[in-house]
Structure formats: C-alpha cells, structure tokens
Write a structure and sequence with these properties.
Family: Belongs to the FAM221 family.
Low-confidence stretches: 1-12, 178-234
Strand order of the largest sheet: 7-8-1-9
Strand content: 15-25%
Largest sheet: 4 strands, mixed
Order of helices and strands: EHEEEEEHEEE
Bound molecules: zinc ion
Number of helices: 2
Distance between the termini: 34 Å
Structural class: mainly beta
Helix content: under 10%
Protein name: Protein FAM221A
Length: about 230
C-alpha cells in the first residue's frame, strides 16, 4: 500500500540546546494545557468558521499575530486575544467573513477593512456609520452580524459537546480540531480520520533540531511530487 507522508515541522529557527530544553519545560506544557479555541458562532450554536493560525482578523492581521499563549487563562469572559502588531488598535481577535474572496460590506456600503479595528469599529471612509455591521448572509442562513467570535477553553468546549481535537504544541491553533475544519490546507489533528498521527523527534540538517509530526495517509502515492511540507511558524 502506497503512503502519502506529510511532515509538519515545528521549528524553523535554530535553538540552542538550552533554549530547546527551556522551551520543552516551560512553553510546551502551557500550550498543551491552555490552548484557546476560537470560532465564529452562529446564533444556532453552530461554529460556522473555525479560526486557524492564518485566519484574518477584522484588524487585517492573522490570528497567529494575536496573543494566543496565556500562561494562566484569564477568569473573565470573554477572553481577550489582542493583536500584537505594533500600533494595531485591535483589542481582541474578531473574525469577519469573506464574500468569496472579497471583503464583506458594512451597511454604510464601505468594506470591512475600511473600518477601524479599535472598539466600536467606526468607518474611516464616512461619518454616517455607527460601527461595522454586515448583513452578509452566512451559509448557515443567518446574517454575519448575528454571529459572534468565541474564544474558549478546552473544558468549555467539551462541556458543550464540541470537538477539541488532539492536544498539540503549535502556536495559534485557534479552532482547528480536525480535517473537516481545515482552512488554507492545514492538516487534520485528530485521530478520527484518514491519517494516522505519529510523532517523531529528529534533526534536519546541521544544528536544526526539530520535532515533527507526520501523517501517513493510505492510498496516496508517496513520491516527491506528492510529498508536501508545511512549515509552522512558532
Ligand atoms: Zn491587528
Ligand atoms: Zn485583530
Ligand atoms: Zn460602516
Ligand atoms: Zn462607511
Ligand atoms: Zn453562519
């Protein structure tokens, strides 16, 4: 049986052995324990969008550019995931849907990205807008404005019977829990589907110490043309 192997490299920067040990001791357990799940939820309770590392925020920055690692998860709800890009006024990740590849329009007729990412989401292009409000209809049948961006913990998701996937040490995983939730080509991270999830530690090249995960997907041909590597920013 031919096998398709996908490698996911966890690190692409050089770590000294001390940094690596420090990382394994400090960051990894926090990430596994304190992962935040981010989704865009319909009033029907359905997660219409599971936010992943590359998913854009209303502020035009990606989820991974926001503060996604918490040493201690805040007690207050909603949990704020502020943008870390300097001078960005975004105070918490806020998903905004696309209309195909186009940004959606506000009822003031201006596009989402013409609005300020500061609280209130006022329009930069007109003075009649009372804050971004999109009537764009989601595939679930509900208007965009009726949805909310939800940031929650594993326990909070489990309590609602929502999938949480496997514990992973990647940064900014947001709501990605499985193959079905893949946007932008991410791999499934639960073990309920077509690939067997395996973990190995090794090194690639000189001084490039890395952990990597790979999937073996039965039925696909393994060859250079079909092999894919995905670099995860860390
Ligand atoms: Zn931002
Ligand atoms: Zn943002
Ligand atoms: Zn507006
Ligand atoms: Zn406007
Ligand atoms: Zn929806």
């Amino acid at each position: 049986q031919a096998t398709f192997i996908v490698f996911i490299f966890l690190r692409r920067k050089l770590f000294t052995l001390e940094e690596y040990e420090e990382y394994k001791r400090k960051v990894l357990p926090i990430r596994l324990r304190n992962r935040l799940y981010v989704s865009w939820r319909s009033p029907t309770g359905m997660d219409c969008k599971l936010v992943g590392p590359e998913t854009l925020c209303f502020c035009t920055h990606r989820y991974k550019q926001h503060k996604t690692d918490y040493e201690v998860i805040p007690r207050d709800r909603p949990i704020c995931v502020p943008c870390r890009v300097s001078h960005c006024p975004c105070q918490s990740y806020h998903y905004v849907p696309l209309n195909g590849t186009q940004p959606v329009r506000c009822r003031c007729k201006h596009f989402a990205d013409e609005h300020s990412a500061a609280p209130g989401f006022s329009c930069n292009s007109c003075s009649k807008c009372s804050g971004f409000h999109s009537c764009f209809t989601c595939a679930c049948g509900q208007p965009a404005y009726a949805h909310e961006t939800v940031v929650e913990t594993k326990e909070e998701r489990l309590a609602q019977g929502k999938p949480v996937g496997q514990d992973v040490p990647y940064a900014a995983m947001g709501g990605l829990t499985g193959f079905s939730s893949l946007a932008e080509g991410y791999m499934r991270l639960d073990d309920s589907g077509c690939g067997k999830f395996q973990r190995q530690t090794g090194s690639i090249g000189v001084g490039f110490k890395t952990d990597f995960f790979f999937f073996q997907i039965p039925g696909y041909q393994h060859g250079p043309s079909l092999s894919k590597s995905i670099l995860w920013t860390f």
